[in-house]
Amino acid sequence: MPDLAQGWEDPELRAAALAAGEGDPGPAIDLVTATRGDWDRRDLVIGFIGDHVLPVYEKIPDVPETALLRPAACATAGWGSRGPGRGATVTRLGVEAAADFMAAADEFIMEAAEFDPDDPVPWSLLLACVLPFAADDEQPASAFIEVVRRAPLLYSARLNRLQSLAPKWFGTREQMLGFAHATAADLPDGHPLHALVALAHLESYLETLTEGGFFKRLRRGTGYLRDESVRAEVDAASDRLLATPPFGGGRHPRSGSAHQVFAAFYLELAEGFACSAPARSRLARHMALAGAGPDELPWAYFGDPVDRFHKARSIRG
After folding, report:
1. Which of 6-20, 26-40, 215-229, 294-308 has the least mean pLDDT?
2. What is the largest CA-CA distance in the chain?
3. Is 23 left (phi over 0), alpha (psi -120 to 50) or beta?
4. Same domain, 133 and 215
5. Does residue 140 form part of some domain?
6. 10 and 132: one domain?
7. Residue 253 and residue 124 share a domain
8. DSSP string, 42-96
9. Average pLDDT of 167-187?
10. How much is the pLDDT for 142?
11. What is the pLDDT of residue 213?
């Protein structure tokens, strides 16, 4: 699964990852058990920990209480075997290698869902696992419905559902943007899911960069960023995320990830022909709240995530 640097800023999650690196999965097991009911935090834990518990996979007890750790590790292995790339750019061998890991992950996910029927995270993890291999939208849509029944605003599930509605998977630009706007419409100020609006426009911008010849792509790309309605929508969502006090009176576990989505959008704006002082100012404000290191997405769409993150941090408003 895509790397989530936000996990390092959670002290207990950081300790669990470091312990796993030293051969001890115990703290990770305890943390997953302790986050039952705190679905937003559990969502971050499972999204982050798979890469770290993969080396100690054989030490994870095969008991219901640890059922989520095993598919998290399998999903990490599956995404790693699949390799980077979007849709059809992934090789057949990459897909076949990943499919075996994802099949194992699916089995463990169902075990976790049966053990704790109220937990939305198994279904969110299932959505992430089926997305690269689904033949149509039926499986992603079904998994998303199961999440929403349990936790309507779970960050990773909404993020992955938006991806499934993008033109690169099973939807259209209009469906993807409609989903982002519908999600954001009734959110409280400060909620990280306001980032879906920026992400949908980043995905749309990327689509313009793949259509036609070089100069046609260049005109479409810069034209998209120049569109005043696009910038107005993202600016409005940016204002909602930056509003104080933050959602729930504290920092949501995925707030840093949300600020990074906006930062990636404004960095593209600042580097393009649509550069403006307001864009640079917004970039600086979001980067101040983006955390210490980069998530893989959306930075990886535009180059090396670390390079792009530090480039964004170097720009002052």
Report:
1. 215-229
2. 57
3. left
4. no
5. yes
6. yes
7. no
8. HHHHHHHHHHHHGGGGGGS--SGGGTTHHHHHHHHHHHHHH-S--GGGS-HHHHH
9. 96
10. 97
11. 52
What is the pLDDT, as a whole number, of residue 94?
47
Token pair, residue 24, equals 């001890």
How far is 258 from 235, CA to CA, in rounded Å? 14
pLDDT for position 124: 96
Same domain, 196 and 225: yes
Name the token pair of 127: 């959505």
Q: What pLDDT sits at residue 288? A: 95
The verdict on 202 and 289 lying in the same domain is yes
The range of the structural domain enclosing residue 216 comes to: 172-317
* Burial (Cβ within 10 Å: 0-12, 13-18, ≥19) of residue 135: exposed
What domain count does the chain have?
Answer: 2
Cβ burial of 4 (10 Å; 0-12, 13-18, 19+) is buried
pLDDT for residue 62:
85
Q: From residue 203, give the alpha-carbon distance in Å to each of 173, 177, 213.
A: 8, 10, 19
Q: How far apart are CA 276 and CA 288, in angstroms?
A: 19
Residue 273 has pLDDT above 90, yes or no: no
pLDDT at 87: 46
Which residue reads 């002082």 in tokens? 277
